[in-house]
Amino acid sequence: MGNETIRFIFEAIFLGFGLCSILVFILSFFTNSDFKNTLASYFNYGTVIIRIFGIVYLVYYLITMIYFYSTIDSSNYIDRATGPYAWAYWYMVLRPIVYCMLTQLLWFKTLRAINIRSLLLVLLFSFITIASGPNIERYVIVITTIHRDYLPNTWNNWESQPNLGQAISALFLLIKAIAVHVAIFSALVGITWFIDKKIIKIRNS
Question: Is 156 part of a structural domain of the chain?
Answer without folding.
Answer: no
